[in-house]
Amino acid sequence: MFRKSIFALLILLLLAACGPTRTSTPVKVTTEPAATVIPSATFTTTRSTTSITLTDGLNRTVTLASPVQRVVSLAPSNTEILFGIGAGAQVVGRDESSDYPAEALSLPTSGGYSGFNLEAIVALHPDLVLVGGINTPEMVASLEKLGLTVYFLPNPATLEEMYTNLETVGTLTGHTAEATALEDSLKVRVATVDEKILPISYRPTVYYELDATDPTKPYTTGPGSFVDLLIARAGGLNIGAQLKGEWAQISLEQLVVANPAIIILGDAAYGETPEKVAQRPGWGTLTAIQTGQVFPFDDNLVSRPGPRLVDGLEALAKLLHPGVFK
Amino acid sequence: MKIRPYLYTLLFLIVAVFLSIAIGSVFIPPAELGRILIGWLKGAAFSEPLKTFAFILTDIRLPRTALVLLTGAALGGSGAAYQGLFRNPLADPYLIGVASGAGLGAVLAMSVKWPYSFWGLMAVPGAAFICALLTVFLVYSLARVGKTVPTTNLILAGVAFGSFATALTTYLMLRSTGELHRAIAWLNGGASQAGWGPVLTVLPYLAIGLGILLLSGHALNLMQFGDDQAQQMGLPVMRARTLILLAASLATAAAVSFSGVIGFIGLIVPHVMRLWFGADYRRLLPLSLIGGAGALLLADVIARSVMSPQELPVGIVTALVGAPFFLWVLRRAKNQGYW
User: Which of B64, B202, B232 is nearest to B125 (CA)?
Assistant: First the structure.
């Protein structure tokens, strides 16, 4: 009898669990008047002739009356794109990790990895918050509820998609010409790399290290990651391409079997050096270590999906094929 | 009825609420704060910078303060009830699996890419809430022996199922590397949406759960004599236990679903209240409720000011500051055999 009544009660609760969410829908609506407090949300009707309407990475429709003037960037890649297309002067705030270019460092931060501070963002009076793939949908919803204009710039999967992101940010900030110019120059640089790599048939095997806290099963970059894409483009064979997931663990056994010709230390910023790698137990037999083909690398060049990916491509190509890049 | 313990804890809560409203990464000078309050009373419109300050207060700080207050009250109240129910000083609101169930639900929901919509955003708190209650129900059913549910069985079933759920959660987290930071933030009590939505959503559950708990002080007092004695004194032990268990779990599950898992408050606040004001559950329950709210508010103020503008998950602060404080109270307590 107790079991029955408890079960009935629980069913009731579960049903009720769906109920109040419905009652909280009006809450979404009631917060809208708050939008009038923020100047950015009130301009929609004033100048509809030049208005910009875009669909962002979360399928949200974002409408701007005119290009934005006060942008808060919440991802390092977004910050690099903004500065790259000449919209740096319109950036008024950034996240903790946005440390490039150096001018960005003087901007106030509004939080980062462990949590963002909504108050700090609101106080900057942004007319656009540019969020990226590293930000959560909850973050977007919170900003939206505060009446802020939010654009979610999705993480690109290819260089082409990265170019599209440049154009999007160009449209949002009114720097379309600079965005196109940057895109063209990047394409020329990529084509130069392609021209030099394509005639060569040699494809060295590459192990790109993300984290070796446990050197018996370090993390490397798997298929679908930008590093994987760029290693292939730079004329190498990523041994992590055989694994599963963008961040994949590889065992030392697999590593010994794959025996990469080149080891790239994407974790150099965390203090890994070629000397330390050579001293790891069991690593000494690897060809790359015996031939001295272990290189520290600036991971920010390949982990932030912005214009510096092309810098990363060039740097990788130079490491893999030093002969053709004099 | 002794009035003094209530005065002290209420005063503590009022101070905590004030600090929570006054302190944030954007500094609002006390004079401006006063002018905003007067402006509200008059219904006047604000000009900059008061306009921004007023907006930050109404749309960011007040809803957050309200959510934290409710969460703290739920954890403190449920903690006291669980300790009384199990007659075990180690009992906390997560003892029979609310936290591990909610964590599993949240991480499960996070592993799916939801469309960006109202329901998509409700997926994580919704799944956490439902899985928390399902876990309690499952543990309760597993612990049944005939018509009774011995507390020892409940604890053991809860611990065993909790380990299972936690292991599954960890496995899911390791598999989906992309959303890892989101899951970690949630499991440490650091993630919630802004605005009044979450507050209004959890309010009915907390009202029911905590309402029942506030009425069960006498029953818990009787239970301290043991099941047989309590039964002889006229308490329908099984029925009362089930009701209190459900009420406390409901309140905790609702609180956890939006605020994430916040440890330690539900364990130490009832103990501190017991050490200071005695073990009468008719008093201990409301005091733990008020004290829990105040303590969590203070922890939240610390969490968002030490590394400002970054925010720490509040669960880290509750343990980091709460543990030494509790040890201090414990050392000072003269009546060591208070339990």
Answer: B202
Cα–Cα distance measured from residue A63 to residue A53, given in angstroms and rounded to the nearest whole number:
4
How close does chain A come to B37, measured CA to CA in Å? 17
Q: How far is B332 from chain A (nearest CA, A)?
A: 36
Across the interface, of A125, A140, A145, the residue whose CB is closest to B195 is: A145
Tens-place pLDDT, residues B287-338 = 999 999 999 999 999 988 887 777 788 888 988 888 888 888 888 776 555 5
Point out the residue among B201, B242, B309 whose CB comes nearest to the CB of A120: B309
Chain A residues touching B61 at Cβ < 8 A: 119
Whole domain around residue A147: which residue ranges? 29-186
Nearest to A183 by CA among A53, A67, A84, A100: A84
The DSSP annotation for A76-89 comes to: HHHHHHHHHTT-GG
> How do beta strands A115-116 and A111-112 pair?
antiparallel
Q: How far is CA A27 from the centre of its chain?
A: 32
Contact A147, A37 (CB under 8 A): yes
Q: Distance between CA B78 and CA B285 in Å, rounded?
A: 8
Strand, helix or coil for residue A292: coil
Structure tokens at A144: 């939206």
Distance, CA of B239 to CA of A5 (rounded, Å): 11
CB A100 within 8 Å of CB A81: no
Work out the minimum CA distance from B24 to partner chain A, whole angstroms.
Answer: 8
Q: How far is A146 from chain B (nearest CA, A)?
A: 7
- Per-residue pLDDT, B325: 87
pTM over 0.80: no
Among B103, B154, B153, smallest CA distance to B132 is for: B103
ipTM confidence score: 0.71
List, for residues A19-33, the tens digit of each pLDDT value. 333 333 333 333 333
Whether A7 maps to a domain, the answer reads no
Query: A142, B122: Cβ pair inside 8 Å?
Result: no
Q: Is residue A135 part of a domain?
A: yes
Q: Note whether A125 contacts B52, CB cutoff 8 Å.
A: yes
Contact list in A for residue B115 (CB cut-off 8 A) is 59
Domain with residues B4-332, CATH architecture: Orthogonal Bundle (1.10)
- For the stretch A170-213, pLDDT in tens is 999 999 999 999 999 999 999 999 999 999 999 999 999 999 98
Tokens, residue A235: 């004329």
Contact residues on chain B for A59, CB-CB shorter than 8 A = 115-116
d(CA A12, CA B310): 40
What is the gyration radius of the CA atoms in chain B, in angstroms?
21
Last residue of a domain, one of A162, A186, A210: A186
Cβ–Cβ gap A20/B204 under 8 Å: yes
Closest CA to A122 of B192, B25, B190, B258: B25
* Residue A49 maps to a domain: yes
Q: What is the largest CA-CA distance in chain A?
A: 84
